[in-house]
Amino acid sequence: MALLPVVLVFLHIVSTAADSESHVIETLPGYPGLLPFKLETGYIGVGEDEDLYLFYYFIESEGDPEKDPLILWMNGGPGCSGVSGLFYEIGPLNFNLSSYDGSLPSFILNPYSWTKISSIIFIDSPVGTGFSYTNSPEGYYRSDTKLSMDNHMFLRKWLLNHPLFLKNRLYMAGDSYGGKIATAVAFEIAKGNEAGLQPWMNLKGYIIGNAFTDLDRDDNYRVAYAHRMAIISDDYYELAKSSCNNEYVNPDPSNLQCSYALQLFKECTRNIWDQHILEPKCGELTSPRPDDTRWGEAFIEDFPEEHLFQSRHEESSCFSYDQTILWLQMKNFFASYTWARDDSVQEALGIRKGTKEEEWVRCNRSSVYSFDVRSVLEYHKLLNEKGYQILAYSGDHDFGVPYISTLKWIHRLNLTIEDAWRPWRVDGQIAGFGL
Question: Which Pfam families does the record match to this protein (predicted)?
Answer without folding.
Answer: Peptidase_S10
